[in-house]
Amino acid sequence: MSKPWLSQYSHFVPAELPAPQLSMIDVFEQTAAAHPHSPAIHYFDQTITFAELNQRSDQFAALLASWGIGHGDRVAISIQNDPEFLIAQYGTWKRGAIVVPLSPMFKKKEIGYQLADCGAKVYVAEDAILQNEANNILAETQVQHVVPLSDFASTLETATAFLNHRIAVSPDDVACLVYTSGTTGPPKGSISLHRHIAYNANTFRTWFNIGPGDVILGIAPLFHITGIVAQMALSALTGVPLILYHRFDSKETFRLIEKWKATMAVAAITAYIAMLRDPHTADLSSFTKCCTGGAPVAPTVVEEFRNRFGVQIHNTYGLTEVNSPSHLTPLGMEGRVDCDSGALAIGLPIPGCEARIVDLADPSKVLQSGESGEIALKGPFLFAGYWDKPEATASAFHDSWFLTGDVAKMDSDGWFYIVDRKKDMIVASGYKVWPRDVEDVLYQHPAVREAAVVGVPNAYRGETVKAVIALRPEFVATVTEADIIDFTRQRMASYKYPRIVEFVTEIPKTASGKFLRRELRGKTT
Q1: What is the pTM of this model?
Q2: Which of 103, 148, 251, 458 has the greatest number of C-beta atoms within 10 Å?
Q3: 494 lies in a domain?
Q4: DSSP-assigned beta bridge partners for residue 469
């Protein structure tokens, strides 16, 4: 596919990027050797240098070696954004083992499934998980060694004398098994090679011109692919500091941006909305490389954020299977808004990415600009398949093109716009309704903080449109379901507007900010 826009951005966005020649652990160790005394992590108000992080990850690698953990073994980690996550990740890679990041917010069924599915032998987890769930979780798994977070440091000390811990790791070795969000079915372990992570870390570095003077704010969870690539790997590649603060809190976010002069972050739009609704503020003048992705973004939110803070949010697009970004909005640019749907563009394909729109029923048919279909991708960032699921891997591709499951369209200049998830389409009285269309209208209502739309069974229509809404606090006592229905009825076709409205305090979401529509469909009203 031709890329007419590249000439406009060729000063910092080349058409291609070089193939990674090193594994991510080699990249990290080279940076640690070149900049041993530079800050690697700012954890709240404390600083850990690259030399210290390297030494502590050596200890973790030695611990794994003492347990016989080596090439290809899986080490699962359930920790929030704390330094121990990076120590365990780098230490695991030094043994040629595979990191399996798991959300510490999972419950026993979710954790047990993923531990058993990946066959992890080591499990590093927060104490609350182990105290509440350990006996039930581990019974059906292959886990042999458990490291509670509270015992992390003392456990490392037991293996410091074990010196023969480092083994060779190639760019083609498996770095991580990152489980998909599971928004439409059981999560699958997406296989990320070291070269996949290195490539897209280099994409972020190139596209957003990351280098000396930059500081990454770690809002995205480290157990999510964006946290791994756009935070951990980007820091390792560039030698710039990464700010960690356990988990997102808007007041603390303001404080740490100002204290450490954070310049860059990739976060779910819900984090930026939380900052908008927080009365606290700070000097955000350093915060110039601000990105979002993983969930629909209302243009009004981007505008409101820019008006209040003077900061432009750059929309992006990616999936676990593409190792974070396949599309990005160029630095300093406002994303285009689709004149038909009002959707904010997800950006332009990254260097090395082939992207096209294909017919939903026949992916061999490539659609023209302006036509809606499924996004299909090729590129050096694509995952190597789903762990132990060859049939699922095969069905994810058509003629070597990865089928994302996202419905979108592309304009004549190469900008892409998400319409919705293929599996989320609602058929009401024979008409196709995309939840995103309805959500975009709902976000125009001044009382709506968050909105998710799903189809629910209906004896007459087959399916009917349901809106699940979290209101802004000041409107909770005054806005009714009828108000919302009337607002949408005046602005969209009769088959599209929601017949059912449910108000909730918070809409259930994945760690990356995607709405858990499966849970919303299960609710009854």
Answers
A1: 0.85
A2: 103
A3: yes
A4: 451, 503
